[in-house]
Amino acid sequence: MELPLEELLAVEDAFERRSLFVAALQTALREHGEETVLVGGHAVETYTMGEYSTGDVDLVVIVKRPVQELLVQWGFVLRGRVYWHEQLGIAVDLIGERLGGDWNRTHLIRIREYTARLIAPEDLIIDRLNACVHWKHPEYCEWAKKVYVAERERLDVDYLRECASEELVTDALEKIIEEVDDADKDA
Fold first, then answer.
1. Span 26-82, pLDDT tens digits
2. CB within 8 A of 154, min separation 6: which ones?
3. Distance between CA 119 and CA 105 in Å, rounded?
């Protein structure tokens, strides 16, 4: 599959362009038996409908070489550890082969004729809580809360609590749940 450059360039909104790119890339890779999962800031941005703003696309990849080869074929240049496409203004970071969460819980979303795979919202919430609690980035708790609010009707709260316990972020998760429940009562 060729890079749908003209289709991507026609999309003015940076979030929408990155989302379409991710779906096109993942679809092309899937055609060759490779799978990736969108994680990190762009996954937060997707679940919060563009509320969070990020500058790059973070992908968990099982086998890096096919992804690297396709990115180069599509005109991306390696700068440090990030692949950059000047014309599209898109940076791709291949962050590793281990998904911080359950592969079977990942979500598939349709974007035009392409399909993107995202980390499960529960696993993304845990990722953000880990950054907040263990890496001391308090703003990440706010993003965990925003993903929680955006996806709360579909969340597996038992799984979320189990993961929070394993990752030692239960207090932070319960604070979010309480705040959201209190806000619902006040509404």
1. 999 999 999 999 999 999 999 998 888 888 999 999 899 999 999 999 999 999 999
2. 121
3. 7
Question: For the whole model, what pTM was predicted?
Answer: 0.94
Query: Strand ranges (DSSP E) for the chain?
Result: 36-39, 56-61, 77-79, 82-85, 90-96, 107-111, 114-118
pLDDT tens, position by position, 82-97? 999 999 999 999 998 8
The Cα angle at residue 49 between residues 167 and 8, in degrees rounded to 5: 115
Nearest Cα neighbor of 91 from 56, 54, 60 is 56
DSSP state letters, 98-122? --SS-GGG-EEEEETTEEEEE--HH
Structure tokens at 136: 């001391």
Kind and range of the H or E element at 167?
Answer: helix 157-167
Name the token pair of 36. 């990736």
